[in-house]
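Below sits the subject:

***
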Amino acid sequence: MAGALASAMLFVLPVFAQDSRLSLADRVSLLEQRAQNKDQSSATLVNQLQQVQSQLRDMQGQIEELQHQLQQLQDKSKDQYIDLDSRLGRLEAASKTGAAPASGSSAPAAAGAAATGTAAAAGNPAANATSTPTTQAPPAKGGNKPLSAADNAAAQAAYDAAFKTLRGGDYVGASREFRKFIEQYPDHSLTPNAFYWLGESYYVTTNYKVALEAFQHLLNQFPQSEKAPDALLKVGYCQLELKQAPAAKATLESVVSKYPSSKAASLAKERLRRIQAG
């Protein structure tokens, strides 16, 4: 025991002797310095904690924004699914009854009405794909003769080819073919359908401005077309995407009032309900 105590004193005495050589002022200064170092360490930790908290707040904001965008995408997918489902239903009903789409008005459509632009996807278009008339088109305004049987067959083939291109996923080629069809056959009974699918091809790939032009041309040139309710609905959708909320709301309400028993009216009511809910 005595030996261990002696060994410990050998280590302690030099340190004690060194501290004893410091003046009282030096000792106070040393203690203050140590305290200051501890304060700086504490401040560093506080700063780091604040930075972590700030990063967490930023991440939370990004998560909320991503959740909002996901909800928007889900809503848009739901709309497209419902729209597609309604088209398939009409196509199935038409195939059972052998119905053909109604002829449009005889007013000539503007050539190249949809203009050029980035072509769009049409999410598996199916409505009225096979319910196309085989009779001659009505005479054009101004007394032009009806199409001959050969010309009408050529028009039918051109429309079918454009629609096949659309269904095959070549949306650039399909939009080009539909525009060409509209230019060559401005008064054909299939021209309203061509305008509609041209607009759809732009709508699905978010080229809403050009899609809006195509749908509006259909409504202006062929207001009695059976595609008019769907076209008016899509005008409202395009206006929503273009941040034209008041105009979109008025358009959707017009769909409900003009075509109350149509599927387009049901879709318009659903979209109006969601707009109202915020």
In short: Residues 95-144 have pLDDT under 50 and may be disordered. The chain has one domain: 71-277. The radius of gyration is 37 Å. The CA atoms of residues 74 and 237 lie 15 Å apart.
